[in-house]
Amino acid sequence: MVVVVMVVLVVMVVVLVVVVVVVVVVVVMVVVMVVVVVVVVVVVMVVVLVVVMVVVVVEVLVMMMMIMIFIISL
């Protein structure tokens, strides 16, 4: 009886350890995925912002050039 109880206890402990390890691995994977997605979204937003800023600056510069050319031509 004692041996059977010991074996059952050992099996329970092993199963618990395996379950805990699996849960930890899954949680870590999910966290890593979330972090990667967040980083990608932030990088894309920053790139879009920079492109928009550059386009706006170029537009303003072109408008100023046109206005200067127009004034000079007068």
Helix content bin: over 70%
* Count of helix runs: 1
Q: Could you tell me how far the N terminus lies from the C terminus, measured between alpha carbons in angstroms?
A: 109 Å
Oligomer: single chain
- Run of helices and strands: H
- Which strand-content bin applies to the residues? under 5%
Poorly predicted runs: none
**What is the typical, i.e. mean, pLDDT?**
95
What is the overall shape?
Answer: rod-shaped
Taking the sheet with the most strands, its summary is: none
Radius of gyration over C-alpha positions, nearest whole angstrom: 32 Å
The total count of strands amounts to 0
Structural class based on helices, strands and sheet pairing: mainly alpha
Write up what this structure looks like.
- Keywords: Membrane, Transmembrane, Transmembrane helix.
- The chain crosses the membrane at residues 7-40, 46-72.
- The chain contains one helix and no strands.
- With 74 residues, the protein is mainly α.
- The protein has a domain at 47-74.
- The protein starts with a helix and ends with a helix.
Features:
mainly alpha
